[in-house]
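We include the entry.

. . .
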Amino acid sequence: MPTPGFPPNALDSRGDPIWISEVASDEDPNHTLHVVNGLEPAEALETLGAKPRLFQPCELPDRKPDRWTSLPAAALGTESGAALLAGRIGEWTFVYDDSMATDHENTPSLSANGRSAATSMFSIYADASLNYVVNSEQLAWIDIHDNLEADLPGMPADLRAAFDAAGVFGPDAEPGKHDDAILMRAVCALAGLTCTLSDLRRIPLLVTAFG
């Protein structure tokens, strides 16, 4: 399992960053992860269109109430609409969207004023994509069905390093092949989110209903 940027306890059995699989709903996750440097969590949420009056400090519950509810939704006590969870580690802020209510169209706004931002999406149909934008200019768009080996040389250096850190997960990993979780791993590697849920519980978090 050559995933050099992630300690073994930071990935689940499918190669997903374990903090994501532990906050996501267990039944067919359909979610988006945004990362941006130099922007505070509340500012990132507002940039995505969330309403500041709905922001709440968040302590994630110990468990999900059922297979269809994410931990952020459980923290809000809501069963409908999306829940957004935001926090900051180092220079990078993340926003996890449990229902794919936000998407790649939001990435340029996050990256305004010289910032770097990336968005990864994974749908219930196992479609996955990644958008990388700097100062509102798209520098990379990657679909899970693309030939990553061919695309890597043309990527910006920091994104290419993130894919190197993400590696390829699984016992049958072969050169030129990749697993479905690689795009989420790459975004997490880019932003230094090679952490566990326990690590996230130690930092200030914001949660909000959305949509």
